[in-house]
């Protein structure tokens, strides 16, 4: 495509497309936020219409695991396309959805025995919240109507999911529309006081949760958490002991535990499910983003058999009468199966340990920079907080960093003053070294501006 076509795309897009999570005015004016027309993708790289390339170091909003235009996922999808593109899942079933449910359940040692499907992450959260309430109702505990979330939590942007989200920028405008939930302390390890370990912070946060449960367990249906890393609030990481404590408290006070693994599942934190690192299973586990390899919208909620049984009855109204048009879409499920095949065939979790060690080492000069604090890593997530001189610099840091990174062929989008890397699981040694070196270059450039 000619450069003139490229600017034409930008113009047409700004005239007709309302872009997500964007103040559209930022794309106009004297120093506009760039809008990149992507013509194609290959491996870890996105290419624009001018042939410029960008290393997708945030996996296109945390979804892409094995690169763009992955030959194995492409082949699976092409095969599926000629068999069945979609069929409704009520009264019908098909091999991709069966095989995917079986394989995921097996990955939990069959503790989470059933999968309920939707398309986006937020829908999976809605399903888990509704199911939790309804399971208690079916057990004659219909007073259990309240939910608990953590400070800084993010569970999606639909009304129900936003009610258990604690990110002011996304939530405040819609406050009047939302049901109140209980917000308890985050186990974020950065909150450690002098002499406290990450595990101490986790125990302190769990104690606050226990105080609430002592008072209101009779009204509380579930606690929803993002295991190990609260991503959207700025990659806040916590000790796995927190998950053990939440599990124990949920058991003691008869409250469901919902693990939102939409961002942290699928190997992102080093194990396939983040909960494995604490050797606990929740009552509900939400999965989306990486599960389809970043190809198609797919989300699901896995549940324990006891939850499933609470709905199993001759009475239709005791069933879970929830659906989405594309529930269990065969193409999306097939992409997920191809994704699971790659995990198995390539020993991805082991390979990622090697990749992670190399990237952590390559980032060590940046970690030691005197305007970097809280450098942290878990699995295939790296983050640090920029120490900025003044509030004005902080306000525009993220946007300036994004623009400067594009100049260095990197796709990076800091959250506030938190810079993070969440790359696909395919980076070569060269790509790892390039990513680390250029992230440092960008950081130093942005500090100077
Ligand atoms: C992205 C995300 C969601 C929402 O998923 P969508 O597909 O964007 O609706 C929910 N929870 C967590 C933890 C997420 O990171």
Through-space gap between termini: 33 Å
Could you say which overall geometry the principal axes of the C-alpha atoms support? Answer: globular
- What's the number of extended β-strand segments? 16
Radius of gyration: 22 Å
Walk me through the structure.
The chain has 449 residues and is of the alpha/beta class. It has 2 domains: 167 residues, Aspartate Aminotransferase, domain 1; 274 residues, Aspartate Aminotransferase, domain 2 (3-Layer(aba) Sandwich), CATH 3.40.640. It is built from 15 helices and 16 strands. The strands form 4 sheets. It has a 7-stranded mixed β-sheet with strand order 4-12-11-10-7-5-6, with helices on both faces. A hairpin with a 2-residue loop joins strand 1 and strand 2. Helix 5 crosses helix 10, helix 8 runs parallel beside helix 9 and helix 14 crosses helix 15. The protein is globular, with a radius of gyration of 22 Å. It starts with a helix and ends with a helix. Bound molecules: pyridoxal-5'-phosphate (PLP). The site of pyridoxal-5'-phosphate has 15 residues, from helix 5.
